[in-house]
Each structure stands twice: as C-alpha cells, then as structure tokens.
Write a structure and sequence with these properties.
The structure is a homodimer of 113-residue chains. Chain A has 113 residues and is an all-beta fold. The first copy, chain A, has one domain: Jelly Rolls, CATH 2.60.120. Chain A contains no helices and ten strands. In chain A, the strands form two sheets. Chain A has a six-stranded antiparallel beta sheet with strand order 2-3-4-10-5-8, with no helix packed on it. Chain A has a three-stranded antiparallel beta sheet with strand order 7-6-9, with no helix packed on it. In chain A, a hairpin with an 8-residue loop joins strand 3 and strand 4. Chains A and B meet through strand 1, strand 5, strand 7, strand 8 and strand 10 of A and strand 1, strand 5, strand 7, strand 8 and strand 10 of B. Strand 8 of chain A pairs antiparallel with strand 1 of chain B, so a sheet runs across the interface.
Chain lengths: 113, 113
C-alpha cells in the first residue's frame, strides 16, 4: 500500500508546459511512487485558464471534482460540471478551457499500456 | 469522447457480491462503454458497511471523495479521509471498513493490463 493525499489549492504546483495557462497540477499515483499501469493526478484550472490542445496515444479518464469547464475533444464540445465524467480515447485531440468565474478541479487518469 | 456522470447517493445500485455489506457502486468508465486500459468506478460504503477482503492481479488507485474509512492492505492498516489517496498493488489483499457515523465515498481505478 502506498498512501498520499490531495492538498489545499494554495499548495498546488503551477503546470507551466507550453500552451497551458492558469493550470496547477498535483501528481498523486504514478510509476515513480506506486502504480505501474496508470497515473492519477488532480488539475486545477483558474478562471480564463486552459490546457494545451493535446493529443497522445494514452487514454484519459476525467472526473470533475468542482467547477465548470468547456471541453473540446476532436470536433465535439461540451460543458462539464461537478460530478461529470469523461473519457478521451487514444489520439483524440482535447483541450479544457475555464470560462467560468470560479476555479475548476478534476481528477485525471492516464494509462501506461 | 464519451460522457457520463455521477448521480446522487439514492440512485446508486447495491453491490451485492459475497463478503460485501452496505456497499453501493456506480460504474463510470469501462471497456463496455469507452476506456480500454482501465475502469473508473465510485463506491459508497454505509456506516458499518465493508467490502470483502479482496485479492487480485490488477492494481487499484483510490481517491477518497468523502467520509472516513478503515483500510487494511496486507498486514497494514490505516484510516483514510476525504482527499486521501491510496494505491493497492497487484496481489495485495485489501478491505475497506466504515467504522464512522456517516457514509464514505471513493473513486476507484483498476487497470486491465
């Protein structure tokens, strides 16, 4: 068993990769500390923040913990809110944009298959 | 993109497998609807409820969404609460027991590698 914990927003680290704006991330489970087949992370996106338009071979599972996000996957678009869950398949281009007035937070799984 | 959502506790389905007591489950992402390499589910455990003492080759990643649980993994034991995260490795025996006065809810990932 490996134990870790989420932390208050103020303790999150900025995720300063190209194309990301106003995004914070916390790495929870990954092969460096525990899990072999998947990684589990939480992301916070500030109002007006967004992730890069990303595309890769691994899948994503996303559970919205709080807030509201505009998500674009391929040529589809949706508004997702607390309790919504989405799957992004291998090679689907995807981007999260926060157009609301409060921060949004989600849990994200990726596989290592 | 596949979209689904969590629901209020009253809409959860009982998880009546042998050894489980007072456990409800909602299947979110899995190979039948979307994800190939992992499944994502939420579980609710009522006060005095518990999962079976389980052991299997797949890994688990668990994020506690609310409440407090006594978790036993191998010969270790821990109390986990909202925001705590744990990893259960392949073949580690594990059991969740709710000894608190309120329900506990967690998000659970399993791999299909």
């Amino acid at each position: 068993m490996y134990l870790t914990k989420d932390v208050p927003n103020e303790e999150y680290e900025p995720y300063n990769e190209p194309g990301f704006e106003g995004v914070l991330r916390r790495k929870l489970l990954n092969p460096e500390n525990s899990s072999k087949q998947f990684a589990l992370r939480t992301y916070i996106i500030d109002p007006n923040g967004h992730t890069a338009l990303d595309r890769h071979s691994h899948e994503h599972g996303v559970y919205i913990l709080s807030g509201e996000l505009d998500v674009r996957v391929g040529d589809r678009q949706a508004i997702v809110r607390t309790g919504d869950v989405l799957h992004i398949a291998s090679d689907e281009p995807h981007q999260f944009i926060n157009r609301a007035n409060e921060y949004a937070k989600f849990l994200c799984v990726r596989d290592f298959a």
